[in-house]
Amino acid sequence: MDIDPKWLSRMNRAVPRYTSYPTALQFQAVDESLYKTHLAQLGKLPISLYIHLPFCRTMCLFCGCSTVLNRRPERQTLYLDWLLHEIALVSEIVQAPISQLHLGGGTPTSLTIPEFDLLLSSLHRSFSFEPNAELSIEIDPRTVYSDEGEKLKALKRLGFNRVSFGVQDLDPKVQEAVKRRQSEEMSRKTFEMARALAFDGINIDLIYGLPFQTLCTFTRTVDVISTWQPDRIALFSYAKVPWLKKHQNAIPEEALPSTEEKFAIYTKARQLFMERGYTAIGMDHFALDSDSLSLGYRSGKLYRNFQGYSLNLAENMIGLGMSSIGFVEHAYFQNHRELEAYGASLEARRLPIARGLVLTPEDRLRRWVIQELMCRFQVDKRQCEALFSIHFDTHFQNSPLAPLKADGLLEETHDKLIPTPLGRLLIRLVAAAFDAYLTQASAHSKLV
Ligand SMILES: C[S@@+](CC[C@H](N)C(=O)[O-])C[C@H]1O[C@@H](n2cnc3c(N)ncnc32)[C@H](O)[C@@H]1O
Ligand code: SF4
User: Fold this and answer.
1) Which member of 47, 69, 99, 193 has the greatest number of CB atoms within 10 A?
2) CATH class (in words) of the domain with range 1-18+360-435
3) Euclidean distance between the first and final Cα of the chain, in Å?
């Protein structure tokens, strides 16, 4: 794709990734009683559970996740104890069955097999699971390699059916620069072990925009990964937020690809994955046609949440663990982001809720529009009017759609807003036109 570099740098603004709307920047302090009221309103419809396991043995310099560097097993034991307390407190209020469980991090697979047994048995005692529930987990290959697949087998035995491996980039020079040393052999072996165990779906995470990446080096990574044929690939843009994650400052600025090169790496990778049989889903995911995410995309059942794109199996999500965010009855709730505060709440038998936001009717309307753009690449104005009792064009008359159209990112018909192929690549920018909170000096990562 031929893109004028000047135009691209003008477009390259700081915009949210819209894993939520409103974004976490809008969250305010909330107290436990508000959270309990919302939890109590959950009926019997299935819900999702997200559990955050923050510990990592080493810190990857690019990491933007909520992690705790840890090499002391007893800290993890204590954390698990708090988590079991939290599960017990929530399940006293919530009766809904679980359709989706996701273990994210940090590194969930820093748990030992007995710790996994303990966690899953507590979950099964406390909640009922739907028969076809999706159980997924993020895996750092370095934590499941040396035991000859024992931990992967345990995950399979415990009912996990989807696994996601963090690979990021296969190039040793890139890995060294971000302090993520993980040989190609290790990534491939763990992938093959998971294949042999017949998990329903295997995802691989890659990141573009890392130091020393070039079109040539990353094309090799894409080539190799696509020959493995994982069911899904997440191709994340390196989110540079050094004001939040100080360790990112250790990556030398001059080693990073330019905006233009980063965009070229992305578009080339996207093209290659599509040529190798993958459907591009939303902004940064790819899935084989046989995968449920592809089927969900085609049938309009895609959803975007804090874990990226997933199948919409439940409207409500409960977050458990330090820093986790849930969405319960039209409100976001986030647990304490510091380990000590999280633990102290649970020691005092209180739910560790810290911040959140109850959505206004206007927030709900804009959240819907942004979800439609991010997940379906269109907005049906008439559907929106029927759902929210508004006149679409009048309601959004002040939204800056004209510049998007002038820049060739958006087309508008009488009934629909449709991002162009270029607008799909920069979909966060199109969505940002409907963000009522976005300010010029926003604390988000750059678009490209
Ligand atoms: C919690 S981590 C994955 C689990 C495991 N700790 C690992 O690294 O393999 C989830 C994913 O977030 C992505 N990620 C982390 N920091 C990022 C950043 N700053 N920008 C873009 N993606 C990032 C990586 O692709 C990573 O695999
Ligand atoms: S990328 Fe994964 S292993 Fe690396 S620091 Fe982040 S959460 Fe930990």
Assistant:
1) 47
2) mainly alpha
3) 15
